[in-house]
Amino acid sequence: MNTRETLKINEKGHLEIGGADCVDLAEKFGTPLYVLDEAHIRNMMRIYRDTIESEYDDNGLVLYASKAFSCEAIYRIAAQENIGVDVVSGGELYTALKAGFPASKIYMHGNNKLDYEIEEALDAKVRCIVADSPEEIDKIEREAAKRKIVQNILLRINPGVEAHTHAYIQTAKTDSKFGFSVSNRTAEKAVAYALSKKYVSLRGFHCHIGSQIFEKQSFVLAAEKCMDFAAEMKEKFGFVTEELNLGGGFGIWYTDEDKKIPPEGYREYLEALISAVKRKAGEKGLKLPFLIVEPGRSIVGEAGITLYTVGAIKEIPGLRKYVAVDGGMFDNPRYALYQAKYTPVLAARAAEPATEIVSIAGKCCESGDLIAMNVHLPKAKEGDLLAVLSTGAYNYSMAMNYNRNLIPPCVLVKDGKGEYIIKPQSYQDLTRNDVVPAYLLSETDK
Ligand code: LLP
After folding, report:
1. Atom 5 of ligand 1 has which residue's CA nearest to it?
2. I need a surface site. Which of 83, 94, 405, 433 has the fewest CB within 10 A?
3. What is the Cα–Cα distance from 166 to 345, expressed in whole angstroms?
4. Ligand 1 pocket, residue 109 CB under 6 Å
């Protein structure tokens, strides 16, 4: 089990999250169900914020990367914790604003922001747009000019750091759809281009090397390369980097193959980044930039679990035993996408030793619809409550209605009590946008 206060096994042998018994949560809210522990989320936000305050003279900002889990409640929590957020679409921006999140602490990302998304960001007066292409710099310039404002931007640069993570979630190698490459000089050209614009104010650079990364060295290397680039730009154009955003990507525990980092342990990642930035600034004679980090997974990932009910159990003698649950790739597509690994627990028998190796299957009509392969469990039977741990990040946010399954609701637990932050979907929600053209209607429908 993970090292968090978030999860424990109570005297009944039941799994508890944030002080709430999972058996009670399942009875009250049904399954499948996402559950998040509010205390853990707040703790992680504070740890990042405090580290910037204490180690970097408060000269920076923590942004919660809201793609990891986006709904109105999470933006409220981020606002109360005095951190910023990054959004990557009009939809995330809309949700943040609807939750009353201050635009002055919103950064807008995306490798292909649509015209209306840029317009929405400018209308909302977001603090900064992270520009990813020359076309986008043009669009921002055009829209800012129309509004007679000067929009702050960062350029997303690609320093060519390869981190050890799944290829699809690795983003700063040279062959990536993201950012301006430093190595082939497109980044340098983008600086010159942005500086030539009147309604765009280039503040500095952004880089994000990937996600679920544990090696500090990869982050440090990226920070150093960004600072080297800042020094070059100062020399070439006299450009002073006021702001440096080093992205997110800090890894979390999913299974015992991963490092277990206690919440306080994440300070070290930030400290390593901070000392790299300070060291390089000293060496190159650069001003210390306003420093931004944007963790997503490490804020909400381990705060979350998904509760399922076991249904059919299929044993293929000598081959495999499948334990099917009432969810699947529609609430967690991460196995299907990345062969991600998870730890399941029988939530009402959490203290029992594992006696079997099974694979957890979903209910979708697709063989690849799996949640976890070859995991250890006590002998499961129909009706058992199954908890899958560390599902707070990129599960709800990537959920879908495949097979017209309903996306599960999400409950936030505070002081041992759960409350909906995302309501259950209904069948009516599924057909809400369906339209039947008149020619398909039969006489009796008319
Ligand atoms: N900043 C930028 C620009 C990003 O692209 C990301 C994640 C983050 C920050 C936050 O990274 P984190 O701290 O959460 O690692 N769907 C994948 C993860 C994709 C991550 C995309 N970018 C998954 O389920 O693993």
Report:
1. 208
2. 433
3. 25
4. yes
Confidence tier at 178 by pLDDT (50, 70, 90): confident
Token pair 């931004």 is found at 292
- Any atom of ligand 1 within 6 Å of the Cβ of 392: no
Residue 365 is among the residues annotated as catalytic for this protein:
yes
Strand ranges across the sheet with 20-21:
7-9, 15-17, 20-21
Length of the chain: 446
What's phi and psi for 315, nearest 5 deg? -105, 125
Q: Which of 22, 128, 207, 365 is catalytic?
A: 365
> Which residue type, as a one-letter code, is found at position 390?
S
Tokens describing residue 21: 């018994």
Long-range (24+ apart) CB contacts under 8 A made by 12-15 are 13/348, 13/349, 13/350, 13/351, 13/352, 14/347, 14/348, 14/350, 15/305, 15/345, 15/347, 15/348, 15/350, 15/387
What the block records as the tokens of 353 is 């030793």
Q: What is the mean pLDDT of residues 407-428?
A: 98
DSSP assignment of 94-160 equals: HHHHHTT--GGGEEE--TT--HHHHHHHHHHT-SEEEE-SHHHHHHHHHHHHHHT--EEEEEEEE--
Give dist(CA 364, CA 326) in Å, integer. 9
Alpha helices in 153-304 (DSSP H): 186-195, 216-237, 266-284, 297-300
Tell me: the pLDDT tens digits for 131-168?
A: 999 999 999 999 999 999 999 999 999 998 877 665 55
Cα–Cα dist 202/144, whole Å: 13
